[in-house]
Amino acid sequence: TPAPVWMVLGAAPLYEFGATTLRSAAYIAGAALFFDVNFGRANLGSVALATPFILLAFVGLGLLTAAATMLTRRQNPVAVVLGATSVFLSGVLYPVSVLPEWLQSLGRWLPLTHALEVLRQALLMGVPPAALLPRVGILMLFGLVLVPLGVSLFAYALRRAREDGSLTHY
Predict the structure, then answer these.
(1) Which of 15, 37, 54, 55 is the most buried (most CB within 10 A)?
(2) How far apart are the C-alpha atoms of 78 and 65, rounded to whole Å?
(3) Distance of alpha carbon 89 from its chain centroid, rounded?
(4) CA angle, 39 as apex, 123 and 50 as ends, to 5°?
């Protein structure tokens, strides 16, 4: 394909971002309507501050996963392991505080841990933006490292796929 890398990276995920945004809004509305979750204390300023940094961190991980998939021409087992690890160590299923200290410290190396904490504090406890700055800063660091790394690895994988003719596999 003659499409430049920026177009492949920029246009392809627009539908996914839109669909995910609508799905997330539906989950929040469903939680409020059916499970009586009170979002009355939610601090939308905190959510607005954190959201771009959460997205950056996960866009970087997504780019790395896509690049690895293109390079290996099969589903990336690292992504599967990272996803499963994130679910168990990030506080998705149970509070991180119930884990042994060494597992808690491993969980701090995952962006999902910080994203969940920021969103829970902002949406459920109404924590102001200033109090969330340390965790938002960590998410920003994840984004600053993962996005350039993901873009460069994806560009390399795209170049290789064009050269060896395997781009049609995706």
Answers:
(1) 54
(2) 8
(3) 15
(4) 20
